[in-house]
Amino acid sequence: MLKNLNPKAQIKRLRYIYHAAPAPLKGKLKVCLYLACSLPIVDLIIVFVTYVLMMALQKQSLTVLGLTFGANSLFIAIMLFIGVTLVRQLLEFLSVRESRRFTQFLYRQYSAKLLKNYMSMSWRSFSKETKAVRMKHLVATSLDSAYSYQVFFNFISSALNLLLLAGSMFLVAPKIVLGGLVLLALFMRFSSKALKSKINQATDAHNVHEQRYYNHLNESLNMFREMRIFGVSEKMGDRALGELEQLSEAKVRLSILPYTPRIVMESVFTVAIGIGILYVIFVDRTDTPQLIASLASFMLLARRMIPSMSMLLSSYSELEGTYSQLQVLHREFSDMPEQEEDRAQTNPPGHELLVLSHVSFSYEGRGKETIENFSMNVSAGDRISITGESGKGKSTLMMILAGFMEPHKGEVKRSALIQPKLHGIAYVPQETALLSGTILENIVFGNETVDEEKVMRVLSLVKLEELIGKLPEGLQTVVGDNGMFLSGGQRQRLGIARALYHEPQLLLLDEATSALDEETERQVMASISTCMKNSAVVFISHRKENSKTHATKVVEL
Ligand SMILES: Nc1ncnc2c1ncn2[C@@H]1O[C@H](COP(=O)(O)OP(=O)(O)OP(=O)(O)O)[C@@H](O)[C@H]1O
């Protein structure tokens, strides 16, 4: 949020941005900075060369920095002018290219780091925030944060440009420059005061509406069918578009406001140059050649100074917005204490895969414990059915078994065979999440080596072999967004096939067969039992029949 635009605060922000750059990128940052600073220096040289050229055009001799240019130095002056201008163009190209590359490189790094952090967070931390917000940070906040370096380079380059050019003007016409500087200071103070509250409001509105827009979009896309069936898709669409309208308005205000001072400044400069020309034309003076050369140099100065001035003013006002995004991002990086850690390999004795001793768990903000003083063992070969009324904590227990959540009290011992990062556990929830790609991709799920024979075997275990055989593109059939081209039961069976393909030591099924008809469910459960002879299966099912037929142990919550 934009709180103040005073120079001290801005310098603090610039320092923060500089020091916040990741250490391995400091070298690249310095290259960008040198390039950005080299441009104002070359601009200054061009102004001198222009002065020399103007004097040579009028056949006047001149001594600059100990070098004497005679009345016939026109050729040298032209060559100098062309040479230095070309060097400037090259430097500008390099500076723009390197700073853009740096910004994009940083954007990729920020997004990658954030994604890595999100994917290694504990489930408890991950589920504290909506996916829309996570998405916003991954895409928009990372980009805005990286863009703060672009603003930083623009600020430094334009400030140095103005300083050097105004300094050189000062040597020639100190009174004009002093007057100009006073005017500029007054103008900046006045304009930043006038703009401050407006930019504040626009930034606040921008952040609020952007957040709401992302949330509404996420909800509309996720709940497409519900919105249609309840006849609210238009209303919900309007809700998102209403936010977008407000967001666009805030964006327009935010992009226009910084331009206003520039337009005023350009008008003032144009009038001043016009008055200078009129003065040369109408006032008869003896030093006309020097005056013409100075005026030409001044015009060139102004041509460079006006864009620098506008860049300085716009980067000055943009600085806080991008800086606050950089802070948000850094908070995201540091606010992730609960990372998924490699758990200690506390091997339980014998064939036990998992031992829960006096475990209690409660969700934040829910006073009562969801799981209270609970103990259980899971050994290879076990078929355990977890039963209990709705809301009793069956899924919560599954999440603890899977290692997504750690209990507050009690102890969980996991065999080295089922450390989550060793892929020893497979977890299939009721709502199977599928990739939008092919059936094959969904089964091998990120594995580089594909064993098609094994794929066909697991498909036959979940009774999907026949269906795949009938599909013209077989395993290469695309399943659509989260498997929307498949039935609910087919999606669930694909989820189970994926789990079996990974040959887990412990298979957790959280109502993973709820969408199947009784006969298919019985066949699938029997296949699982047979193929997982040496492993353990823990399942939740609301059909009592399943506990009776497929379980060796029943745990009542
Ligand atoms: N992320 C969460 N934050 C806060 N409370 C939660 C969260 N997830 C579940 N709960 C609460 O914990 C309790 C147990 O939920 P859980 O999903 O484990 O029950 P369940 O036995 O699997 O229910 P069902 O049979 O209906 O699926 C419920 O009261 C639920 O409201």
How much of the sequence lies in strands comes to: 5-15%
CATH superfamily of the largest domain: ABC transporter type 1, transmembrane domain
Average pLDDT confidence is 83
Q: Report on the biggest sheet.
A: 5 strands, parallel
Tell me the number of structural domains: 2
Bound molecules: adenosine-5'-triphosphate
CATH topology of the largest domain: ABC transporter transmembrane region fold
Query: What's the alpha carbon Rg, rounded to whole Å?
Result: 35 Å
- Structural shape: elongated
Number of strands: 10
Helix amount: 55-70%
The CATH class of the largest domain turns out to be: Mainly Alpha
Provide the spatial order of strands within the biggest beta sheet. Answer: 7-8-9-5-10
Q: Could you spell the SSE succession in H and E letters?
A: HHEEHHHHHHHHEEEHEEHHHHEHEHE
